[in-house]
Amino acid sequence: MTILKLKVILFLTFSIVISENSNAQTTVENINGKWTFIVDAKPFEVKGVTFGYDNDVNNYEKYFQELNYLGVNTIRTWGTGVNTKRMLDAAHSHGIKVMLGIWMRHGRAGMEADDSFDYSNDEAGKKVMYKDAIEIVKKFKDHPAILTWGVGNEVYLNTATDEEKIAYSKLLEKICSKIKEIDKNHPVTSVEAWTFGIDWWQKYVPSIDIYGINTYGKGADILPEELSKKRVTKPHVITEFGVRGEWEIEADRNGVKPEPTDKEKYDVIITGYNEWIKPKPNSLGVYIFQYASDNRHVAPWLLTHFKGMTRPQYWAIREAYTGKKPENNVPSIELFQLSKNDVKSGTWVAVNLDATDVEGEELTVNFYYNQRTGSRKRRDQLVPLNFRGNFSDGFEIQLPQVNGGIKVYAMVNDTFNNVGIATTSISVIDERAAKRKFLVPKAELPFYVYRDNKNLPYVLSAYMGDYKTVSVDLNNTSTVKSGETAIKIEFKGKNEWYGLGFVDPANDWGDILGGYDISGAETFSFWAKASYDNLNVEIGFGLIKEGDKPFYDSSKKLVELNLTDEWEEYTINTKRLDLTSIRSGFVIFTSGQGMSHNIYIDEIVFE
Asked: Is 553 exposed, middle or buried (0-12, 13-18, 19+ CB in 10 A)?
């Protein structure tokens, strides 16, 4: 006990980040027993959100103005990209600091991003991650918006063996120590789920200055006690926070995990910040998850917006950080129940729905469903339901052509662009759906594999043959059939063959469930041209055949073509093909035929 007390006394007078420069931008100090950031010689309490709009560059001004309105003074990202410099500039212009993420790959297939990295044996891959991390720091270390570096996110949680975790820890220490060497003006943070990284950090990664902890619900309240048990003396920042997550909730009789109410989602942010986070002496503050909009399963549960409509979390962040009540209240759903259970698909089922609005605005209603089974994209998908009725006469929904338990959403909008959401569950019976081999999301037709490089369902990650002689530009604007961009494939070799595939999940060759159910599509078509006439190619869809891997394309169809130097449309009839699981949405094979070439592809679509 005496030794521990002595350590605390020492921490009262020394900064974690000791800079030779008296004008150091950011340090972390323990002042009278309370850890705090010091930014430009002033205390800085983290009132943060995780930032999900990094790709929406054209609306940065709007978003950062809104963050000022919410009382947010810092954002957190998970990684960097082509927009990072513009995002940092926008943040700085509005007085907002950034925990800039440095992404580290996850070590188990099926985890986040469906990635799998071998930390024990992939030395080349570790060198790439190290090099990328250091380049990021060198590039942005002098930007005035930087608060701290956030290296990695939940890698220990998503790595299987102790051997791999040790290997990751050693790489993490190498990165963090190098960051401290080249940037003495900003502390280093690493981020993990709950306390899963603590033992590894304390033993192998002494260069971490701040422990970043992702925790939800009342976990934030008991976190200091858990850290004390592990004798943690370093400061921590809660890097993700919100209402308790799906992983903490037991499934109901239909196999569906009940979602917390909108009131719970609001209250936990207010209580969590004011009682569980802000007063704790080792806490630097919190990044609430997440300032973003989406149309997937995570949005109603944890995001500030669903399809651009405002959720309770948005107003809760504002009250937590500014003390101000909502400018306009989200509609409240007092009752949402379905009249039946274990019902055949296609049946119309009565809905008991009561909703009110404090401001008395006119309310509109929509219904969706979700299934938390199958591939990642299917588990995330919210699908509109057919419905009829009104508040006076009641509503009915038509059950979809699926089998098993589904979560059903009632979404009630006011005229202020707020949306209140409630959920329930029902078990649907459909014998045909029960026999489906692969549970993947149903695609809406027309289903574009490529169109202006926006919201692509598949990722170009399958490279075959002598692919090092090939470069691909998905944003080519020099030669386009329609819209703004087309795919440009540039081959710089002579006689070598190569193949390219747009696949889902990315970087997978049939070991992870993925792809889309494109049933109902009668044609697969695309536009193509080459830099010279009669360039022989094979083009189509499907790459993994049955028997090769656990998860394969339900159909493969390649056609041999001679491309010309003029745009031409090519169409494949798909009426008789099994399209229930197409994981390779576009595939091309060709060779140099004695000389280099360019190939252009545009408007790839199933319809």
From this structure: buried
Q: Which of 222, 80, 214, 213 is nearest to 138 (CA)?
A: 80
Question: What distances in angstroms separate CA 134 from CA 22, 139, 151, 166, 172, one per listed residue?
Answer: 24, 9, 11, 21, 12
Helix, strand, coil in percent for the chain, rounding step 5: 25, 35, 40
Write down the residue that tokens 């009382």 correspond to. Answer: 71
Sequence-distant (6+) residues with CB within 8 A of 34 are 281
Name the residue with tokens 């029902």: 426
Q: What pLDDT does residue 5 have?
A: 30
Considering all CA atoms of the chain, what is the largest pairwise distance in Å, rounded to the nearest integer?
83
DSSP for 130-159, please give it: HHHHHHHHHHHTT-TTEEEEEEEESTTTT-
Strand 523-530, strand 568-573: pairing: antiparallel
3-state secondary structure of 77: coil
Alpha carbon distance 313, 505 (integer Å): 31
Strand residue runs (E) in 495-593: 497-503, 523-530, 535-541, 557-563, 568-573, 584-591
- Hey, what are 147's tokens? 């608060």
The rounded radius of gyration (Å) of the Cα atoms in the chain is 26
Helix ranges restricted to H, 33-192: 60-70, 84-93, 123-140, 162-182
Query: Which residues have a Cβ under 8 Å from the Cβ of 562 and sit 6 or more positions away?
Result: 533, 534, 535, 536, 537
Whole-angstrom distance, CA of residue 263 vs CA of residue 116: 38
Task: Please tell me the distance from the alpha carbon of residue 260 to that of residue 324, in angstroms, as a whole number.
Answer: 24
Do the Cβ atoms of 15 and 29 come closer than 8 Å?
A: yes
Distance CA 10, CA 587 (A): 62
Could you give the 3-state DSSP secondary structure of residue 219?
A: helix
pLDDT confidence of residue 4 = 30
* Residue closest to 336 by CA, chosen among 394, 400, 414, 406: 394
Q: pTM of the predicted model, to two decimals?
A: 0.90
Q: Please, are residues 165 and 172 in contact by the beta-carbon 8 Å criterion?
A: no
| CB crowding 3-32: b at 16 or more within 10 Å, else e | eeeeeeeebeeebbbeeeeeebbbbbbbee
Taking Cα atoms as reference points, which of 595, 484, 486, 471 lies closest to residue 533?
A: 595
Task: Average pLDDT across each block of 10 residues of the chain; the chain has 607 residues. List them in order.
Answer: 31 37 72 94 96 96 98 98 97 97 85 78 97 98 97 95 97 98 97 97 98 98 97 97 96 97 98 98 98 97 98 98 98 97 97 97 98 94 96 96 97 98 98 94 96 94 94 97 97 94 94 95 98 96 95 97 97 97 98 93 98
d(CA 260, CA 421): 10
- Could you tell me the CA-to-CA distances from 222 to 193, 194, 195, 275, 283 in Å, in that order? 14, 11, 11, 11, 12
507's torsion region: left (phi>0), alpha (psi -120 to 50) or beta?
A: left
What does the pLDDT read at residue 116? 81
The residue behind tokens 């504002």 is: 318
